[in-house]
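R.M. (postdoc): so does anyone remember the format we settled on? I'll just put the structure tokens first.
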């Protein structure tokens, strides 16, 4: 990484603020790699998906739901576990045409 976040000065947090999260090197490295892959051409799409999977595994391994990191350009970003519920229309199998014709003949 070209630049890192400036270390926090001591005694600058309010009493009601939580302590700063400890950096996790494996997640920092994985996030750096993700940013590099995202900057490449579209053919790297599969690599981006694989890197996101790696980050997901690392987040779960370290028991954190989100992680803030800094890109090489100095932009602060956050990765997080996102779970969602989706719905899809289920196609039902059509009845046999023969069964419909048998009823019409009677």
């Amino acid at each position: 990484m070209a630049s890192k976040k400036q270390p926090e000065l001591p005694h600058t947090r309010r009493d009601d603020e939580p302590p700063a999260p400890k950096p996790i090197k494996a997640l920092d490295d994985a996030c750096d790699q993700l940013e590099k892959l995202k900057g490449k051409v579209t053919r790297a799409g599969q690599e981006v998906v694989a890197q996101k999977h790696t980050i997901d595994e690392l987040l779960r391994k370290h028991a954190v739901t989100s992680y803030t990191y800094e890109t090489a350009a100095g932009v602060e970003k956050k990765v997080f576990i996102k779970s969602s519920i989706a719905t899809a229309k289920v196609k039902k199998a059509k009845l046999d045409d023969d069964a419909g014709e048998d009823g019409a003949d009677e």
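R.M.: ...and that's the designed sequence above, right after the tokens. Also worth knowing: Residues 21-82 form one domain. The first strand starts at residue 66 and ends at 70.
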